[in-house]
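Title: Prediction job returns without error message
Component: structure pipeline
Severity: low
Priority: P3
Assignee: unassigned

Description:
Job completed but the reporter wants confirmation the result is attached to the right record. Sequence as submitted:
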Amino acid sequence: MFTIDDLADRLGGYLPPDEIQQVKRAFYYAEQAHDGQRRRSGEPYVTHPLAVANILANMHMDHQSLMAAMLHDVIEDTGVSKKALAAQFGKPVAELVDGVSKLTQITFEDKAVAQAENFQKMVLAMSRDIRVIIVKLADRLHNMRTLGALRPDKKRRIARETLEIYARIAGRLGINTIRIELEDLSFQAIHPMRSERIKRAVASARGNRRSAMREIQSSLQQSLDDEALQGTVIGRQKHLLSIYKKMRDQRKPFAEIMDVFGFRIITEDVASCYRILGVVHNLYKPVPGRFKDYIAIPKANGYQSLHTTLFGQRGMPIEVQIRTREMEAMANNGIAAHWLYKAGQTTHPIAEGSHARARAWVKGLLEMQRHAGDSLEFIEHVKNDLFPDDIYVFTPKGDIMELPQGATVIDFAYSVHTDIGNNCIACRIDRHLAPLSTRLESGQTLEIITAPGARPNLAWLNFVTTAKARSAIRHALKHQQQAEAIMLGRRLLNKALTPFETSLEELDESVFTQAFKELDVSSLDSLLEALGLGNRMAHVVARRLVDVAHGGSFDQTSGPGGEKAVLISGSEGMVLNFARCCHPLPGDPVVGHLSVGKGMVVHRSECKNLIERKNDPDKLFALEWSETIDEDFPVALRIEIESRRGLVAELAGLVTDADANIERIGIEERDAHLSTVNLTLSVKGRVHLARIIKRIRNLPNVGKITRMAN
């Protein structure tokens, strides 16, 4: 059985005696706190924190992380408080322990909500100290190693969460030793039979391949020695989940996947990496298009290496990775390499760069968290962002930006800065104008064109891929709708106050203070927002404000009536919608219907759908079109015309010449000679429409033209 003395002996290799003593003191404190508690397997509970600390010792983590590992369940599972831990072991250790601990003091109705809230808490702790996630990963790894004592359904639930969140975070931070083990343990818990069959097949295949592996390894090593290049060639093993995913996703049989021979060459410096690349390409022919230079352009988690695929003997593929010793440590330990070098009292640019990237990633998580509506939405954003294959594009200044596969121009704009994404109106890819929905490819240079008054478009959510862009767009649209609702609410309330010969600006502050209490709102903006979204009636609020202003003695019998119509310009945004049933146009007599949660819906006054709403006159408003309106509006026409070849092209040309756009066109054949054309156009107003109809009437053999409503 592994003991604290065994751990202390291991720590002696890189920690000073006084720090080892502090780790031992934390162990004895945890042993006392967990006294009498046992794991499901029957072992004393303290064996778990000791094992977690041992995992961290493999990564040469600092003494505070090891102390936090010893104490990480003390707050959650015993009566010890964070304050007591801070007094005993210092504030940094207490903060680490608190960051790893779950929210046990709050009861959640839904397990998913509880997990999401706990993850949010951990992200906040990570922003203060990145070591929180490393301790948490070590904790999760030991829990996965000891899943055997749990029920099968609980095993699967924990394994899925591990696979979706923690294994991917380990990959994002470059800690591949932990990532691979978490993935394989999760795979074994979710699919035990498949895992066992693949494991047996791998063991059998490795035995059959041993001589071929030795032959290739020997020829690679001999080539390096002939060129006097220092480098160690080692065989690379595929892990179980990787094999299973390739079989499933690429629909390849096991034998075909195992036919690929993988090797890693570890050398001393970057220059040697490129020289060794030349040697292996001289020994075996490279496969075109299969070379990747992650040294010049590292992955987001700091991973650096040269990857190449070669045609081996008898055409069998050989995958070779070439990297330095520091890159190898980085590939295995990721961000933890920062402490590995720190422990040796040295710094290394690879490890420092990885640490900086990790902090930038956590900063991005915090921004997503601020924009997300709730914890479940936030954790969905994180899952979506963890982490597809990457592409690399360039800014006009030549800076490299990393984005996930399938990212669009909008994703790029938001990755540069949220304000650039919000104000984006166009873009140039390699100096040519391109749509904002364009999927990006590695090597492209992008220039974003912005405008100060521009705003995000709801349609962007249909094609963006990054969580940052998605959460920022939703956040901006939510605030945009709020601002527009407040503006509409102000106009509606001022209109309702007009018959009482007053306005919002003329009412005293004390009137609002008293009215807010009675109306149960916190501020004027929240009241106006409710009015704009149709959740409150403007005339009811107006009467209450006037009543308060006159001490309850104002004559309300006159009530609102005969008041001026509200002017609309068509550019009010998300809280003003135009009914699709009747397609109102500037110049049409219109009526507004206040729909709860949506704002104002504009109908033509003769629209049949208004008849059923006339029973609720308080929600109907007289509207007038502003003279300054300059928007395009859809309108539907039904045209009876003689069938002939080229009819659609003829109509399209006529509409284009009249400065209008066709949004939709459909043709129904009534008989051998007559057709009915259903045409949806974008026009400026009634006058513009009349001009188009006149042109259509000039076509030969045109019968009836009807503007559709309902």
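Comment from assignee: result matches the submitted record. The chain has 27 helices and 20 strands.
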